[in-house]
Amino acid sequence: MGKTYLACDFAKSFFEDYLYINFETHPDMKERLFHNKSLSLGQSICQYFELPEELLNSVPVILDEITFCPDLIRLLAQESGLLNGYYLLLTSYERDLPPELKLSPPVESAVLSGLEFDEFLVAVGSDWYIDVIRGHYMAGKKVPEIVHAELLGLFNDYLSIGGMPAAVNEYLSMESDVNVPEQHRLIFNSYYTEIGRRYPEKEALKMHQVYEAAAAQLQKENHKFQYRIIRKGATSTLYRDAITALTEDGYLICCEKEGEPSQFRLYYPDTGMLHSLIPSYVREQENTRKALIENYVMNSLILHGYCPYFWESSSLAKIDFLIRKEGSVIPIEVRPGENTRTKSIEVYRKDHSFPYSIKISQRNYETGADIRYIPYYAVFCL
Q1: In this structure, are residues 224 and 264 in contact, taking their beta carbons and an 8 Å threshold?
Q2: DSSP string covering 26-52
Q3: In terms of DSSP H, where are the helices of the chain?
Q4: Are 180 and 161 in contact (CB under 8 A)?
Q5: pLDDT tens by residue, 349-363
Q6: 144-178 per-position pLDDT tens digit
């Protein structure tokens, strides 16, 4: 997600200099900083860099990948107050932080995710659109068609590029998305390497298989995950732990069926990466495009604190997402074009009450008696 880049860029922007330690790439630092138990963390850092201790009052220290240094974790868990007076930037995979590490003021934490569509607009220099999108969302009024077309074009760019900083930076540097899939492949490889480091070989292989099978499933008409897509003879018993690990570690996102958690869909935390996993000759097929947009909507809902689930009836009526908003359950349908006519909402209404439904499509803003039509690019407003 670019933790190291952001930490170093922040330090360079607001301070004259900074100190940097990476516990993953330099494992020897664990011994060098903590070999003398009588020294404080600040004293150990100053001793290593051969600097006066008072310098730490004005120079930030970046401690990268702190979970590779258990001694530091224990120190922070015991007393976060020992950081008073220092400028420290600590980075880690959130999933690796032990539960006993409860940082309290003056320590503040921030969780990084990929760029959402509004953040993508800022990155590409089109941030003025954000107020337009929000304003028309609040008013429920259509944006001018020329603006609507421009925003749909930017949204299509976002579907293929996604929000991973390396991919967005490549797009901006090259002024083209031609090399973006290569950046995604590098990220895939880093994921596989990380999985191989953290899990036994047999379990890591299962996780690789599930990770790739999730993309294959989303190319099918039915997006509900089926074990046979992994390989012949695959069962829940064989792969349940691998799926749990992938979702808990954040490599995949699980959306369960209402009332039946054994039935679920698997989405990717970045739609651009899913786009690169799908062969180019099937990306524009209606079902595949719907999957990409579903993936984008799922990500946005998760990032805004919702816990979406989906619904199906015995008559094959389907609601893509259900969220709890304003004290009610709101059904959301995702459509791959301008045609938003379905009977699923009416089927769902027979047994459920809700104030209104949301239909996300290529259509401009519109509000009916009990339906809100939201264009793709406005999902971050929900």
Answers
A1: yes
A2: -TTHHHHHHS-TTS-HHHHHHHHHT--
A3: 3-14, 29-34, 41-49, 70-78, 117-123, 128-139, 145-161, 165-174, 180-198, 201-218, 236-248, 271-277, 286-303, 344-349
A4: yes
A5: 888 889 999 999 999
A6: 999 999 999 999 999 999 999 999 999 999 999 99
Q: What is the pLDDT of residue 209?
A: 95
Q: What is the band of 238 on the pLDDT scale with cuts at 50, 70, 90?
A: very high
Structure tokens at 225: 């995950």
Q: Which amino acid is at 158?
A: Y
pLDDT of residue 104: 57
Contact, 209 vs 231, CB < 8 A? Answer: yes
Residue with the two structure tokens 């947009």: 293
The answer to whether 98 and 77 are in contact (CB under 8 A) is yes
Contacts of 365 (CB under 8 A, 6+ apart): 136, 137, 140, 141, 142, 143, 373, 374, 375, 378
Two tokens, residue 349? 């209404």
Distances (CA, A) of 311 to 130, 211, 218, 303: 32, 24, 17, 21
Distances (CA, A) of 204 to 188, 198, 201: 14, 8, 5
Spatial distance between the Cα atoms of 353 and 328, rounded to a whole number of angstroms: 9
Model-level pTM? Answer: 0.86
With tokens 């909507």, the residue in question is: 297
On average, the pLDDT of the chain sits at: 88
